[in-house]
Amino acid sequence: MDQNYGLQPTGNAFGIDRGASDYAAQTQAALLRSNWDYSRSELEPLLNRLRYLYTNPQGEQNAITAGRKAAGEAFDRTQQGNELTMRMHGIELTPAQKASYDKVAAYNRNLAVGGAGIEAARGHDEMRQQIAVGT
Q1: CB contact at 8 A, 75 and 109
Q2: Closest alpha carbon to 65 in 117, 11, 8
């Protein structure tokens, strides 16, 4: 009885004839080519992006600027909400209270913006470390 049970020999997923004398070598070569093509088409763009993020000299400054801007905008919206709440409850500050309130608000805003810049720089450094070690 025939080993192929009467069927014609067929190829594998790479189209290599299973009856070929060097079937294993051809299949392994095709598998390696397939892996190489995959890495070039799918992984290489990701590696290029990581390389760019790691070596971009403006990356840290951009992160700091964006963090500071976001913190400043969030603080300003919070202040607007606080002032609206005071107006809704009929709370009016005297000129001395308003000056003190504004001074404390400016101090707190500067702390928030400065802290956000520091955290953004720290986050950028951590990202670079993770890229360097491949995590």
Answers
A1: yes
A2: 117
Question: For residue 78, what are its two tokens?
Answer: 């919070």
CA distances from 55 to 61, 95, 132 (A): 13, 52, 11
| Residues of the chain under the 70 pLDDT cut | 1-10
What dihedral do alpha carbons 99, 101, 107, 108 form, nearest 10°? -160
3-state DSSP assignment of residue 10: coil
Q: What is the pLDDT of residues 4-27, one digit of tens each?
A: 565 555 677 888 888 888 889 999
Reference 131, options 37, 47, 58, 30; nearest CA is: 47
User: Which residue type does 63 have?
Assistant: A
Q: Residue 12 CA to chain centroid, in angstroms?
A: 39
Q: Which residues pair with 11 in a beta bridge?
A: 17
